[in-house]
Amino acid sequence: MKNSRFPEGFLWGGATAANQLEGAYNEGGKGLSIFDMVTFVPKDKRGNNIEMDVKSEQELEELLAGKGGDNFPKRRGIDFYHRYKEDIALFAEMGFKTFRLSISWPRIFPNGDDHEPNEEGLAFYDKVFDELLKYDIEPLVTLSHYEMPLHLVQKYNGWTDRRLVDFFVHYAETVFNRYKNKVKYWLTFNEINVSTFSPYIGSGILVDRVEHKEQAIYQALHHQFVASARAVKACHEIIPDSKIGCMLARMEVYPETCSPDDVLAALEEDQKNLFFTDVQVRGYYPSYMLSYFEKNNIHIHMLPGDEEILLQHPVDFLSFSYYMSMVASGSPDKEKEKGNFFSGIKNPYLETSDWGWQIDPKGLRITLKKMYDRYQVPLFIVENGLGAYDKVEEDGSINDDYRIEYLRAHIDQMGEAIVDGVEIMGYTSWGCIDLISAGTSEMSKRYGFIYVDQDDYGNGTLERRKKKSFDWYKQVIATNGAQL
């Protein structure tokens, strides 16, 4: 322990999202969410495309009418709703200090614009938080993780409508008041930048309803920025000892060569990624983005007081997901590699995962140093992991050495960043228990230390089984990262 690079009290744990975990989509008074409408498409039919955006009114109506098939994996999750005690006991056995989960907004306000909350939904999270605290596991709670109520899409076209700011703040204040003695760590919007790639999932936008797609996206994002800042204000007032952060899907971008054109392209990609944290951490729109808006005929409508609320209520810490790095080129003709919501040029120096994601542990150290230099606020890695095919051996074991190697290399580089002077609060490995993939709705794309017996079509016993990585991560936590 004395030889550890990690500070005392470092928050080791795992991360999940309600829509990929809970199931029970039609129980306990829960309303439909945007992800409840995303169907499973086999890889041989979709190729490398991510099939999760609902783009039109007609497509949504067809899905609601049952014409999109009957395999909606995020409706079933892995049944955490009924098995949370068993799962949390396994997290405790690994020694988790924190567990990142999200509250399903439509489990609390089924339509999103309801005045009164759903008591059954509130009571469910009371039980989950109590179970975590029984084992001294700090909940780290995301308010909005791709789970906005579907009704807000249908009636308001999502975050394009300013009224959603008040709906979200009402929801946030409701859960802050309810759980103020149980939850001290909060996040506002998960991977807030995803709206630029997936307007439906990030902001609940049906793009066939808007004339200027980018205008609609950035106006919706402005509303989310304001809602986030108002949630920060409310959190500090209601829970004085709380810490509340933002969350970014972080992509470290390298220039393909030392050509100034490539370096400039990489810089501009980096700015597009860090724009979101510039607003939420620094509290104002950066000049490079105002220039981008002007060049692209984007006009953000702000109300009096918006700029003040952003400046006066920045987040306490910056959290982010990190899975891979990307490469940018000044040439527009380069073939792109697809990964999660982002695409870039193939990096010949890196290996790739089963899903073509470029594995870059040292890129995590680079991005930690860069972001801490830029913001000087505590950082929190709240998603990092390897999606892979796992095989159950005849004796029931799952030897996921590839996952151990991936995580070991990334945690090692995180430790090096701490030695370099970066302040890091904690690390929560993504999908600490196997769950439904966000991007592909697959169950076969597994991240967990715990295997769940379920396939892409919902078949299986849902039995939980420890993988080899379970005991490895348990040792990492027990030694505070000294033994990797």
UniProtKB/TrEMBL annotation:
Protein's recorded name: 6-phospho-beta-glucosidase
Family: Belongs to the glycosyl hydrolase 1 family.
Organismal lineage: Bacteria, Bacillati, Bacillota, Bacilli, Bacillales
Keywords: Glycosidase, Hydrolase
Signal peptide: none
Pfam (any one): Glyco_hydro_1
Top EC class for this record: hydrolase
A single GO molecular function term of this UniProt record: 6-phospho-beta-glucosidase activity
The protein's Enzyme Commission number: 3.2.1.86
Keyword Ribosomal protein carried by entry: no
List of catalytic residues: 383 (nucleophile)
Keyword Hydrolase on entry: yes
